[in-house]
Design brief:
Length: about 375
C-alpha cells in the first residue's frame, strides 16, 4: 500500500482474554425461587462478545457438577464444585439498584492462577471474577500479557461471610490489588461498589466507569468526567446488567469508538439484560443492526482501527446520532419480545420449580434451608432429561 493512500476503514480484529469463573445462579424473590440460570460475568460478557463476533480466549473454572453448555468450554476442576450464588430480591424495596439484592456465595470453585492463563499476548483483557477467583498474581499476569485490561471491581473487593457466604465489600486499598491500579486501563464499578474505591485517588491512575442502574453510567478520568445517558428498559432481573455493560463497553472501545460512545454501547447492552431473567437472548436482527452501526461509525471516523490503547474521552459530534441509532435498533424487540414472553412462559424452569417446591414444602419460607432447593433443582433437571 502506497504511503498516504487512504485505507478503507475497517475493524482490525483484536483478540482478547476473558478471565472469570462461570457460576450457577439461583434467584429468589421474597424467599421464593423465581429462576435459576447460568451466571458469572464471563457468561454475560461472552454473550455480548459472541453476538458481535469478538474473538476471545476464556479462562473459567467449574466443577464436575456444571449444569450448562457454553460456547467457550471451561476448565473442569474435578475436586471442586461450580461456584453457586443465591441472589435474594425483595418486592418491598426498590430493586432497580443492586443495593437491595442480597448475594450469597454458596459454593466457590477453585481460584484461577497465573499458570492457568495462556502463554500468548492479547490486545485486551477482562478481569471479571465474581467469587474471589482472581488472585492478585493472576491479575498481574493479565497485565503482563494484555495491552489494555478492563477490571470489574467486584473481582477485587468482594469478601464472603464464613457462615453463610453473604457477599460484603472491602475498600480497594485494603484488597491486596491496589498496587496494580496504575497498570489497569479501565475500572468498572456499580454505584454500590463506588464508595469502596476512592474515585478521586483512582482516577489519577486509571479511568473509572461507575454504572448507575436506570440512570446510566458516569465516566471519570484524570481530567474530567461525563454522565452517559441510559436506554429505557422495563426491569425484570438486574442480574448481569453490569457484566453486559462491560461487554458492550469493551466492544465499543476495541472498535475505536471514543469512550463516551463505548459507554453508550455498554448502557445499551445493560438495558437489554435487565429485561430478561438470567442470561439475556439478543435478537439476531438487533445485533446485526448494532454491527452495521459500528461499521458506519468507523467509516465516518475515516480511520481504520489504528488507535492503540490511548483512550479518547471527547464526546463525539455523533454521540446523539449513535444513541438514536441504538434506540431505533431496540424497536426490533417489540415483535421479538412477544415471542420472548412466549419463550419465558413456556420454557422458564421457574414454574416447574415453584410448583414442585410448593408441593414439597407448602410454605415457601421453608425454602431458606438451601439444600431443599438444590435437591429440587436436581429433581427438575432429572425430570427434563
Ligand atoms: N433499570 C434499568 N433501565 C435501564 N438501564 C439499566 C437498568 N439497570 C441497569 N441498566 C444499564 O445497565 C448498566 C449496568 O447496570 P447496574 O445495575 O448499574 O450494574 P451492576 O449490575 O454492576 O450493578 C447501567 O449503567 C445501565 O446502563
Ligand atoms: O449483576 P452483576 O453484578 O453485573 O453480575 C452478577 C454477579 O454480581 C453475581 O455474583 C453472579 O452470580 C451473576 O451471575 C452476575 O455475574
Amino acid at each position: 500500500m502506497a504511503i498516504g493512500e487512504q485505507r478503507e476503514p475497517e475493524m482490525v480484529t483484536r483478540r482478547g482474554l476473558v478471565v472469570g469463573n462461570y457460576c450457577h445462579d439461583v434467584l429468589f424473590r421474597d424467599g421464593r425461587v423465581v429462576g435459576e440460570s447460568l451466571g458469572g460475568a464471563a457468561s454475560f460478557v461472552s454473550n455480548v462478545f459472541d453476538g458481535l463476533s469478538i474473538p476471545c480466549n476464556y479462562v473459567s473454572k467449574v466443577g464436575s457438577d456444571f449444569a450448562y453448555s457454553v460456547s467457550h468450554p471451561p476448565i473442569t476442576s474435578p475436586s471442586s464444585m461450580t461456584t453457586l450464588f443465591h441472589a435474594h430480591f425483595f418486592s418491598d424495596r426498590d430493586s432497580s439498584r443492586h443495593q437491595d439484592r442480597i448475594l450469597r456465595r454458596i459454593h466457590a470453585c477453585d481460584p484461577i492462577s497465573p499458570s492457568d492463563l495462556p502463554e500468548s499476548q492479547f490486545d485486551f483483557g477482562l478481569a471479571v471474577g465474581v467469587a474471589g477467583e482472581i488472585l492478585p498474581e493472576t491479575l498481574e499476569r493479565m497485565l503482563d500479557i494484555c495491552r489494555v485490561v478492563f477490571v470489574d471491581i467486584q473481582a477485587l473487593i468482594r469478601v464472603f461471610d464464613p457462615l453463610d457466604g453473604t457477599v460484603k465489600l472491602v475498600e480497594l486499598k485494603d484488597s491486596g490489588f491496589f498496587h496494580l491500579l496504575p497498570r489497569i486501563g479501565f475500572l468498572k464499578a456499580s454505584a454500590e461498589e463506588a464508595p469502596y474505591i476512592d474515585i478521586e485517588e483512582a482516577r489519577k491512575w486509571c479511568a473509572v466507569v461507575v454504572t448507575e442502574g436506570k440512570d446510566g453510567c458516569r465516566v471519570y478520568w484524570k481530567d474530567g468526567e461525563l454522565q452517559i445517558f441510559p436506554f429505557p428498559a422495563s426491569q425484570i432481573d438486574p442480574t448481569g446488567a453490569g457484566d453486559s455493560f462491560l461487554g458492550g463497553f469493551v466492544v465499543g472501545f476495541i472498535w475505536g469508538l471514543p469512550v463516551p460512545d463505548a459507554a453508550l454501547l455498554g448502557n445499551f447492552f445493560g438495558s437489554l439484560t435487565v429485561g430478561q431473567i438470567g442470561l439475556p437472548k439478543f435478537d439476531s436482527r438487533l445485533l446485526q443492526r448494532v454491527n452495521n452501526e459500528l461499521q458506519r461509525k468507523i467509516h465516518c471516523m475515516g480511520c481504520c482501527r489504528t488507535r492503540d490503547t490511548a483512550a479518547d474521552f471527547r464526546m463525539s459530534v455523533e454521540h446523539k446520532e449513535f444513541q438514536a441509532a441504538l434506540v431505533e435498533a431496540t424497536k426490533l424487540l417489540t415483535t421479538y419480545n412477544g415471542q420472548e414472553d412466549e419463550w419465558n412462559s413456556q420454557n422458564s424452569p421457574t414454574k416447574e420449580i415453584e410448583q414442585i417446591v410448593h408441593q414439597q414444602n407448602g410454605d415457601p419460607q421453608k425454602l431458606f434451608p438451601d439444600p431443599i432447593y438444590d435437591e429440587t433443582v436436581q429433581h427438575v433437571k432429572a425430570a427434563k432429561t
